[in-house]
Each structure stands twice: as C-alpha cells, then as structure tokens.
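== Sequence, structure tokens ==
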Amino acid sequence: MMKKAAIIIASGFEEGEAITIADIIKRANLQCDLVGFEQEVKGGQEIIVRCDHILNETLLDYDMVILPGGYGGAEAMKNNPTLISYLQQMNEKGKYVCAMCAAPIVLEKANLLVDKKFTAYQGYDQKIKQGTYLNDKVVIDSNIVTSRGPATAYGFAYKLVELLGGDDLAVKKRMVYFNAFDVKEDE
C-alpha cells in the first residue's frame, strides 16, 4: 500500500518550502496532499494556494505530516490545539512528524522535541528550549524529521521521499539535482 504524506497549510506559510516539498514527493509517485486551515490559504509572499482538504481527523490516516515554515504559518499552527492534538496522536503511533524552518516551534508546543535532536531556521536554537539543536541541513531522530529553511527544502523533500519508501535518487536525477548544486551522487 502506498504511503501518504500531508503538508499542513496555514496562513503565512512559506510557499517555496510547501510547494517544493509537495512537488518532489509527487514526482516520486507518492501521495502528497495539501491540508489547509481553510480551502484557500495565503502564504507569506501573498501567493494563494488551493488545498486538497481542510484540516480534520482524517489527518490521522496519513503516514507522514509535514509542517512548512514561514513565521505566520508556524505561529498559526502552534496556536491550533486541534493540530497539536493530531501531531501528538501521530507521534504516539510512530508516524513521521516533519517540520522545517520556523515550524519546529509547533513540535515544541506539542512536546515532541523532548530528548530529540532537531534543526530549524537560524536563531531558533535560542527560541526552542526542548531537545538538542544541530546545524545539519536535515536531522532525523526516530520519527521526527526537521530541516533549516527555504534553501534546504530540496534536501528535506528528497529525504522525506526516501523515508516514505520512494526512489529519491531517480527523482534527483530527473530534476538535474546533481548538476545544479555541485552535489555528489552520494549526498
């Protein structure tokens, strides 16, 4: 059975992260749905995205939930008790809970960074008191996956494809990843 990922879309989200991640996961022929706080959500750069679904308990059916950054989006997610509850339930079931940029503050609110290694946007090592902050582009600690910011969205998304059981190498090759970033094929 194909694994499914959901990207949470809240007002003020970082468009470059959310769309890049959705695009790469879909290129790997995996299901990736945009789950919004509303049907249409305006991002931090005022780009409006039409979501596949509105947030409800069906989020619990996904194998992975992904929280893009963007200060406004991260604050909106952090202040949504329903989302916090869903994240805690998914974590209890060992499902992947992923966040990047400013969004690890949402994981902290849900108490999911206790005794975990994580990364986030620069300066968030001072804002987040739980867990151990690392400077890595992508940090995986059990089922918690985190990344730094807009420029790390590609590496983050390829790692998520791999964790979902997809062929991240084939997608990297089709997207000219190795040529574009002077990245070696083993990275």
Summary: The mean pLDDT is 95.
